Predict the structure.
Amino acid sequence: MGNFLEGRYRTCNTTGLPVCLDAQFFIRAHAVAAVVFFLIGAIAALLIALTRWQAVHLLSAMWFYRVLTLHGLNMLIFWIISFEIAILYFAGTSLLNTRLFSRKVAWVAYILMVVGALMVDYIVLIGKGDVLMTSYVPLKAHPLFYLGIILFAVGTLTAVFNFFATIYIAQRDKTYEGSMPLVAFGALAAAIIAVLTLLHGATVMIPSFLWSLGLIENIDAGWYRLVWWGLGHPSQQINVAAMVAVWYFLATLTTGAKPLNETVCRVAFVFYILFINLASAHHLLVDPGLNASWKIWNTSYAMYLAVLASMIHGFTVPASIEVAQRLKGFTRGIFNWLTSAPWSDPGFSSMFMSIVIFGFIGGITGVTIGTEQINIIAHNTLRVPGHFHATVVGGTTLAFMGLTYYVVPLIFQRDFYFKGLARIQPYIFASGVVLLSIGMSFAGSYGVPRRHWDVNFTGAPLSAGFDAAAHFMLGLLGIGGILAFTGALIFILLVVAAVFFGKSLAGQPFSGWQPAEKFKLSMEIFARKKDEKFEEIAHKVPGTVVLVFVLLVSFMVYYFANWKALADVWYVR
Amino acid sequence: MEGNQKHPLQKLMDNPWLLLALGLLIPILSYTAWGWYQIVNMAKALLP
């Protein structure tokens, strides 16, 4: 039974889950902070897209790099990690049937995170931190830039400690039976990755802070890059683990899906915990200080276990949806289960498009350009942001948007306005991200560099630049950026209107996105025991198998094309 | 299977503290410590 303090919890009228009121307060607080940082990052994104679109070329060089720094930090660190802490507090309490370990610790974490992030944003905006997100030495920012990142990291680590302490009291008080629920296990994976990330952050940022104060004379650039990427890439792996946990949660909430085999899903999360952080080495594939053994081991042999984990999740989530839909009677043909899915539910559409974009664009490009040999033709080109905008924006951010469409009614207990707009918002955002990612990836394939203000090299003494096809792709990037920004703005306005001015849903169930009887049926399917019919259908998921083979063929074509492109670099006869 | 009869893999998955320890140890050894060792021991470049 739960260990909630008297009067400090409620039962969700929709899901029946217990909600610790202390956790609820901090879930709300972190979600609000996350959306504010998302807004800052989104405005910066639009300005960058309109600058990289060479025909528009909006910002000056100075402001381009300033805004790019702002964009990277707010989107990749402040928005995503703030939202992830909200997820940890939810998964750690409601899913484990326990109270939050400490309200005071949660306050300390929250204040440190918000103060740190605001400090960094202020320093960047006044022009004292034009060092991009990576802040590679010897580029030097104002000391408060490094201090802000340290405060944010310490705050996050404090919140993660609160999560682990919550697990400890749940185990001590036996608030759940058997294994931890799968979604909570996914959150645990994210938290473990976060600890590793933040330890690297402290290791690299504290000396950088002292160096910016003049207390340390020199920081080795190779060492900095090695340790910084122990922060930079794993921070995105926190996203991946949290995003997958959100996929499972939304699949259940919107269709009644139940994982086909929880043990396999858990093993996949364990692969993430043990191996996904080795992917940091991808960023150092052209660094001369590290040998081939280190590069190949960390980017292939061991890392492919994490790729395998993503493929397991990418199969089990749609397969579990297919089974749930077939149990409801959508059995005609191969894809009737998919065409009959609740596509007008923004929680479902966000989740499913997140899986597709993450797998088809982010996954395929990531594995390809992370191959040591191919990396030499992709390194520091726009192909790299093309890849991670598909994973972090099309994957994680879209999944988090989908979750927000349930967090607002279930945790904030507020109803949305303009529900018709909310139903189409994920499509607008996803279309924009797809155009943006494809534009970046193919412009990068023409050799267009990342983090570059003017690829026309205006005023250069020698003729330079790229041909029309590359500029067409940069135009696609710009249009995608405008579309994605429009989707992001709609999302923010809808959330702000609901949270601050929405009708209260306290004491009543939420059934805003699907007809009540459909939602009820989904919950019945979820609650149903794995009987013979379930097992029979679970071993026949033809629609998902077809999707898997489409992914495989797409990967083979892209991978082969890249080896061909690499072979073309050297003229060999 | 319950209690002592749990599969070792299931035992691992039900132990968040062991997962935390391994989740730190493996990447730190494979990525950080090995890479750090190489950078520290890099031979000085010879003058042309």
